[in-house]
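Appendix B, Record 12. Input sequence as logged:
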Amino acid sequence: MAPVFALRRKNDLGIGDTKAVLSTIDFCHSLHINYLQVLPINETSEDNSPYNAMSSIAYDPMLLTLEPDAIPGLLEEDLKLTESEKLAFKERLIDYRLVKSIKKKLLEKAYSRFTLSSSPSQRKDFALFCKNNKDWLSKYTLFRFLVEANDGNTRWNDWPEEIQNYNNALSWFKRQKDKNRILEKRRFYAFIQWIAYKQWKNVRRYAEAKMVKLMGDIPFGINRYSSDVWANQELFDCQWSCGAPPETFFQGDEFVKRWGQNWGFPLYRWENHEAESFRWWRRRIIWTTKIFHAFRIDHVLGFFRIYAFPWLPEQNNEFLHLDMEEVKAKTGGLTPRFFPGPDEPEESALVNKIQGEKILKVILETAKNEVVVAEDLGLVPGYVRPVLQAMGIPGFTIPMFERKPDLSYRPVKDYPFLTVATYGTHDHPSLASRYNFLVQKAAQNPHGEEMRELGRIALFIGFPPSELPDYFDERVHLRFVEVLLNSPCWLVVFSINDLLGIELQFNHPGSNPKDNWRDRLDKPLMDYLKEPEFGSKLKKIGQFIKQAQRSSCLNA
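Logged structural output:
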C-alpha cells in the first residue's frame, strides 16, 4: 500500500503523481508483488485528506503528471521553476499551498493553448468525455466555479442563498450576462477531469501489462462541503456529524479520549438512497472500477451502523468538558449516538445487520467482477464478520489486534483464508516505529508491559527473546515479513513504510489535520532497490513472496 502523494520521481512538482505510480508498478513487478493498493485519489478539500473529498467522482488535480507529453497544451518552458520552488519540492513534507498554486497555473496555461490549437481528435475526445459524464460533471464544474467565485470557500451554506443548491445555482447561472466566461471556467475544470481520466486509464493499462492489479479505496463518508452534498442535499442529513466512539487504540487528543473521533461527514439518508435505487452509490462504484481491479471500502461498519455527533468538529472544544446533561441543554436534547441504533438490544442489532447487508449487496452487484474488500476494524459488532464471510467479502486481519486471552499473538496459521492480512493501515504506526518505541520504554522499565510485549513479539516471529536487538534491524524486519507472507490469508498487504522498514506514518487519528497527509518517501521507490541498505533486503522480500507462492493470488 502506497499513498500516491507520498511517492517521488525525478523532477516531480512536490507531490507524487501518476508517473510516479507507473514507477511504483515497476517496483512491484520487480519484487513479484501483484497488488498495488493506493489511498483514495479524489479531489481533496482544505485539510488535504484523501478521506475528506470535495467530490466522490472527480480526481485530484494535484496527482496529475504535468509534462508536455501528458498534458495537451503544456510546453517545456512552462515548467521552469525558481530555485526556492525546486528546494521546496525536495522537502520531506508536502507544501500543499505551493503545489496547488503552481499546478493550477500550469493547467490554466495548458487549457488556454488547448482551446486555441488542439487537434480535431483531441477536441472530439474531450467533447465525448463531457457528454458521457454530464450527469456528474455539470454539477461538479458549476460547484468548482462557485468555490472559486467565493474566494476558495467550499462552505456552500455560507454562499448567497440563490446558489446554495444546484437547482437554484443553475437558474442563477442562466440569468448571468457573462455566461460565456462562466462556461469557459467550467470547461477548464472539465478539461482537468478529462486529462486525469486519461492518465489514470493509462496507469491501469500499464499495470495490466506488468501483471499488477490496482486496489483503490472508497471512503465511507463524503465531505459535507463537497459538490455531492451541495447538489444532492436530499441524500444527506447535515444536522449530524459522523465519527467513531471512544476506543482504547486511537487515543489522540483529549476530545478523542473522552468522546471519540468526530469526522465531520453528514449522515446518509439511506431511505432516500434506496428510493432512487442507490443511484449515487452505484455511480461511485462504477467510476472506481473504471480504474481499479479491486477496491477497499473504508469503515464498512458504517453501512451497518454509524456513530454520530450532534455538533461539527470545529465545535468539539465547546463540548469537551461538558457532561451529558450539559450537552443535552446545548443541543436541544441530542447526544452522540449510533444510527440507525445501538447494537443492544438484539432487535436493534438485527435492524443494523439488515441495513448493512442490503447496502453491501448493492455494492457487490455494481462491482460485478472486481474484488471488494472491507475495512472492518474498530469496535466491530459480532454480526459484521459473519455477514462479510457469507457474502464473500474479505475483511482485515491485523496481528496486533489478534490476541489470545493471555495477550499473546494468535498464530498466523489460525487466520481465516478470506481476509487481508496486514500489520497496519495508513492510520497505524509503522512496525519500525512501534518496535523502537517498545525497546526504548522497556529499557527504562525492564519489568513493565513494554518488555512483556517484546516477549510476545519474539514468540510471534520465532525469535529468541534474549536475542531481540535494541532497534528494528534487518533480521527482525525480515522475520515480520516472512511470518505474515506464510499465513493462509487470501492477500497480504504491506504498507510501504513496513515494506521498507522505516519510521513513517501518514495519518495520526485525532491529531491536527494540518499535520497529516504530508509525509513523502525520501527517494523514488526504484532507487531503494539500488541502495545497499535497502536493495539486498528488498531482494530477499521478493524471494519470500515467490517462496510463499503469493504471485498466484493474481488470478484469485
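DSSP finds 22 helices and 13 strands in the chain.
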